[in-house]
Amino acid sequence: MTDLAAERVATKPPGVPTGCPVIHLDASPPLEAGSHWQLANELRETSPAFFNTHAQGYWVFTRYDEVREMYQHPEIFSSESITPWEPEPAYRFVPTQIDPPDHAKYRQLISKWFAPNAVNRVSPQAHEIGQRLVAELAHRGGCDFVTDFAMRLPTEIFLTIIGVPNSDADLFVPWVEDFFAGFGGDLEQQQAMGAALGGIRQYWVAVLEARRDEPLLDNDFVSLLMHSTIDDEPLGDDLILDILTVLVLAGLDTTRGQLGYLFRHLAENPDDRRKLVARPELIPSAVEESLRLYTIVFGDGRKVAQDTEFHGCPLRKGDMVYGLVSGANRDPRVYDQPDKFIVERKSNNHLGFAGGPHRCLGAHLARMIMQVAVEEWLRVIPEFSVAGGEPLMERGGGAMMTLLTLPLTWEVEA
Amino acid sequence: MKLTIDANLCRGHGRCYNLAEDLLEDDDDGFVTARGQTIDVPADQVEDATNAAGSCPEGAITLLEVERVS
């Protein structure tokens, strides 16, 4: 076993079979950027399955086929909890934590709004937002990309597609930052996290009030939810607020994380960057490759709903499992040159947006935002690099990974 | 070559119709319209179809009578 994984060997608890190594791994602390993927590689090549004694203990599956199988069998792998170190979460994300068959009812209602046709409708506004944000930064000759651009762009585009003022990004950016500071497990941040959730919920309460007694409005997602039914019943305020909150939490921080890694790659790899400047039609392929190689999802949790034998592991109802998505996306059993960024990669079937019924609802929106970011940025700032010699740090894999900062620098014409 | 899309596995990732845009298209819910169908792949679209099938995260697309390209 290699370095990162070897430090974490732990004593085998009863019920864990021979052939399933035991580790003690808490992936929540920040590490130097890239460390989580290195760790995932080492775990995957050491064993397809582990038992991790972190928290109450949970199974870990490290390879592509197993992770996909987990996603595709919600009757065994329930989404009742998606954090393996917290089998009984206090929150309820809808439809994230709803299992089939009810899941489809919620999902159908929301997914149309985030389908390619609907996303393309706001594409012109998305490009305008991208152009404005790049123009504001270009003359400065440098910025912290993660804070100044990567968080702001998805927030403004998301608010646009929902149908509320994109200037309210001023409110959402700090709320999302505070929420994720606590979500990854930092106990000192729990109060700020709670306050942020309260702020987000109150915002949507006011949006609901403004639409109360109004007819169905065009291009207005909240109005649509207020006029929708499930099993002939209106959704009700609480459920609508749950849905809106989870969209905020699932959509903004994640896209920021992916953008940070993609732009670090472009800053450090001039050949790839110049290829995209010369051939913008390759941008969607490059975005897809960044979702594979720089997966922000270290792993994804599920709760076992029935006793089952899974790849040699005797899973019991109530056990937690963790699919190591970041291991799957670099699995050499599936990908040639798995650790290399190949702009034109074919057959890129990565699980960066998960799989099965809970496949990321916002995937089409996320792709559009990332494509807009690259296109509009490179048009104005084709040459840039990472500033300073300090190693970049990334948030731990307890929540989604993201670079904590990405200082970029570029020449400004006088 | 023919291409078949398993309706039970397809989850609307949208990789196929983006990569083989002359062969496949999406509906208003973001699913490929050929979900659950088997369609003919013209010779000039075999490469796109192969890439689309290989890019499906669910493994929902199967190519039949394949002379493997690339």
Characterization of this structure:
The complex is a heterodimer of chains A (414) and B (70). Chain A starts with a helix and ends in a 5-residue tail after the last strand. By secondary structure, chain A is α+β, with helices and mostly antiparallel strands. Chain A has 16 helices and 15 strands. In chain A, a hairpin with a 5-residue loop joins strand 3 (49-52) and strand 4. Chain B contains 2 helices and 3 strands. The two termini of chain B are 15 Å apart. With 70 residues, chain B is α+β, with helices and mostly antiparallel strands. A 3-stranded antiparallel β-sheet of chain B has the order 2-1-3, covered by helices on one side. Chains A and B meet through loops of A and helix 2 of B.
Question: Secondary structure elements and their pairing?
Answer:
The complex is a heterodimer of chains A (414) and B (70).
Chain A: H1 3-6, E1 22-23, E2 31-32, H2 35-46, E3 49-52, E4 58-61, H3 64-72, E5 77-78, H4 102-111, H5 116-121, H6 123-138, E6 142-144, H7 145-150, H8 152-162, H9 169-183, H10 190-211, H11 221-226, E7 229-230, E8 233-234, H12 237-268, H13 270-278, H14 283-293, E9 300-304, E10 308-310, E11 313-315, E12 320-323, H15 325-328, H16 363-380, E13 385-386, E14 393-394, E15 407-409
Parallel strand pairs in A: 1-3, 4-12
Antiparallel strand pairs in A: 2-14, 3-4, 5-9, 6-15, 7-8, 9-12, 10-11, 13-15
Helix pairs in contact in A: 6-8, 6-16, 8-12, 8-16, 9-10, 9-12, 10-12, 12-13, 12-16, 14-16
Chain B: E1 2-5, H1 15-19, E2 38-40, H2 46-55, E3 61-64
